[in-house]
Design brief:
Rossmann fold; about 700 residues; alpha/beta; elongated
């Protein structure tokens, strides 16, 4: 080999062929080709030399001799990347099959028992060892400005048999599966620096190349396990799908991703908030599959856990109904409507269950005044229904001079609230028991005035404002009746007893509004885990939506103010329940999936049912992790995207845990991968190393 040619051995194209070992990696020749497919002639002996050619494995084809690289013309300086789809018939296939059948029919008992005589002459034996492979063309490697590039198609092909085919192994295969084009690498670097990374984040070693469930040869001790790496920045402000049947590695994939993003942010000293909607409690709690550790255990200081029941080590996810009356009423209504049959009914209860306590515009003085009274009556109903009151909690009651004078007119010796001098703008803060007593007085006075007005054949307005309008409208009257457990005809009914059973959904210990608290944690770069496996399902649904809405609105408010929001990653288990195809795109979950990337919100969603996800969301998903799917409908849905149709058969039959097919933002094709197992000890070691360096 000349000195000039030896220098060309450093060419990336030559390295793809296996450098100086290229001859040992040779497996055949392209005998037919188009812009999308290639047919490869191979031989059993060549296959054995490279430990087999598995289904879906990568092959490469080139027309040049690496040892004469400097002498070839520019036209041939490229390497075509192929994926094996399956066998293909040769023109002589029928004759070969006929020969095999005749041979098998004529084997004698002695030949069979001795297994030493195949009965073929050397020429025939050589002939029947040849076969063909049908391959998909994944792209073309070439060099430009000294850098290796991959085009996602074939620019030209020659009809003559010029392409030799090789099986990439070791370093060559690693170059292929981890290749990133220069412009993508540059863009990723720019985006990473915008959010505070000093350079490209350290790639995630997500797993190793695995072609088939049977891994006896291509993953044997004789073969180097080739790492598959993906960029953490691929997940930031992107959509990621994790599909597969239960117990095939979806949770392990998400844990690995959460850890990698957290470590990358920690290493560069930036804040990336991550929140996991943990339906099954797999991330908040240790289990035997993770060597007794969970995400919360590994990232102890960086992790905050929430639950909808009081549990040591967890923040309370439940609402404090007294501090969040609007959300509390909405939750109560949801719980009531989900009951198959309630023992309580009535017009007042119907009004109560169809009213909103959303705060109106303060500029509308009359409407705002009525809302304050209605809210206070609702809080009084909670108290009577047995919802524990926070320490020193007060309820405001209306005590204007106009109201008190009207009450005195119809109720003799009425007990007026004390400390009226402390009232501000017609309202006084009192204890819950005092509020209940006062609102029952208001109800009694209003009913008495209505009876008087009816006798005088006047409009039955009851208590009136200074402007002559009724203070107690139909909605407030229904709430007061709920409190008194009497309807407007003074007949007994269930009233507040209809909501007594929902007290377990309320937390009197929570002081801060949970959504704002969670957003604060996320913007401090914490990992927030919402353990939704325990506690009421309705709390899970209502609060999940409320938290998601809060995160979405907060990020977009920052963006609309001209600033760059912080990166947030949202992880959703059982995603078909939240972003199903029947969901309106205006609903919060589809909006996050569709629009969240604009405000630096990434979404990682996991489900067993790809077909149940809204097609608009699937079409905009950049990263895909797919393990075993056992249903033709799901595989058909998946086959519409990228080159997943190549893996239809493999995905259906291979049930190995962690055996995934990965398509990431930076890679133009799907890579079959054995996902690394979540290793708590290794991650803890990395955390300690990073923290030690920062100190």
């Amino acid at each position: 080999m000349s000195i000039q040619n030896s220098l060309f051995m450093d060419s990336s194209l030559v390295k793809l062929l296996g450098s100086e070992n290229y001859f040992s990696n040779h497996v055949g020749y392209v005998y037919s080709i188009s812009f999308t497919e290639a047919y490869v002639l191979t031989n059993d002996a060549w296959k054995a030399k490279v430990n087999g050619i598995p289904h879906n494995s990568f092959l490469i084809a080139a027309s040049f001799n690496p040892e004469m690289f400097s002498e070839i013309n520019e036209f041939d300086k490229e390497v075509v990347l192929l994926r094996v789809l399956g066998p293909a018939p040769l023109p002589s296939e029928s004759e070969i099959i006929k020969t095999k059948i005749e041979h098998s029919q004529n084997i004698t008992k002695q030949e069979f028992e001795n297994d030493i005589y195949d009965g073929f002459d050397p020429i025939t034996k050589n002939e029947i060892q040849f076969g063909a492979l049908k391959c998909r063309i994944l792209g073309t490697f070439y060099e430009e400005d000294g850098e290796l590039r991959l085009g996602s198609d074939l620019e030209n092909y020659m009809s003559s048999a010029r392409l030799k085919v090789y099986k990439p192994r070791g370093e060559a295969l690693e170059m292929i599966v981890n290749h990133i084009n220069p412009e993508i690498r540059k863009k990723s670097l720019e985006e990473a620096k915008k959010v505070g990374f000093k350079g490209l984040p350290t790639p995630i070693d997500i797993g190793t190349v695995r072609y088939t469930s049977t891994a006896r040869l291509h993953r044997s001790n004789k073969e180097k396990l080739v790492p598959v790496r993906i960029q953490p920045s691929d997940f930031l402000a992107r959509r990621t799908a994790v599909f597969g049947m239960t117990r095939t590695g979806k949770s392990n994939t998400i844990k690995t991703t959460v850890s990698a993003v957290a470590l990358a942010a920690m290493k560069d000293g930036i804040k990336v908030g991550q929140i996991i909607f943990d339906i099954n409690g797999e991330y908040a709690n240790a289990n035997h599959q993770d060597d007794g550790s969970s995400i919360a255990d590994v990232f102890n200081e960086e992790c905050i856990r929430y639950r909808a029941i009081e549990t040591e080590g967890f923040e309370d996810l439940r609402l404090n109904f007294y501090y969040n009356p609007s959300e509390a009423l909405a939750l109560i209504q949801s719980l009531y409507n989900n009951e198959k049959k309630s023992p309580y009914s009535g017009q007042d209860l119907d009004t109560f269950m169809n009213t909103t306590l959303e705060e109106p515009d303060k500029e509308n003085i009359s409407q705002y005044y009525r809302w304050r009274i209605l809210r206070s009556v609702f809080l009084s109903i909670l108290y009577e229904a047995g919802y524990k009151v926070p320490n020193n909690f007060k309820i405001e009651i209306p005590v204007s001079n106009n109201l008190i004078s009207q009450i005195k007119e119809v109720i003799e010796d009425v007990e007026i609230p004390k400390n009226l001098n402390d009232a501000k703008k017609g309202f006084l803060n009192v204890t819950p028991i005092e509020a209940v007593r006062w609102f029952l007085i208001i109800r009694e006075a209003n009913m008495s005035l209505k009876q008087m007005q009816k006798g005088e054949k006047k409009a039955q307005l009851g208590l009136k404002s200074n402007k002559g309008n009724s203070i107690v409208d139909a909605t407030l009257e229904a709430f007061l009746n709920m409190l008194a457990r009497k309807n407007s005809k003074d007949q007994q009914f269930g009233g507040y007893r209809a909501i007594v059973n929902y007290t377990v959904y309320h937390s009197n210990k929570r002081k801060n509004e949970v959504v704002n608290e969670i957003i604060k944690h996320l913007y401090n770069g914490k990992i927030v885990i919402l353990d939704l496996s325990a506690g009421p399902v309705e709390v899970r649904n209502v609060l999940s939506e409320k938290i998601a809405t809060g995160i979405f609105n907060y990020a977009f408010n920052i963006m609309n103010s001209g600033k760059t929001p912080q990166n947030i990653v949202i992880y959703i288990e059982e995603a078909h329940n939240l972003i199903g195809k029947k969901e309106e795109l205006t609903h919060i979950w589809p909006r996050i999936a569709k629009e969240g990337a604009k405000a630096k919100i990434a979404l990682v969603y996991s489900t067993q049912e790809p077909s149940s996800i809204h097609p608009n969301i699937l079409a905009n998903t950049e990263n895909w992790f797919v393990t075993h799917l056992n249903n033709e409908d799901e595989l058909k849905t998946l086959g519409k995207f990228y080159d997943f149709s190549d893996f239809h058969d493999s995905l259906k039959v291979a049930q190995d845990v962690g055996f995934a097919r990965i398509k990431s933002l930076s890679s133009p094709f799907v890579i079959p991968t054995q996902i690394n197992k979540f290793d708590p000890n290794k991650i803890k070691s990395k955390i300690n190393k990073i923290k030690g360096r920062l100190l």
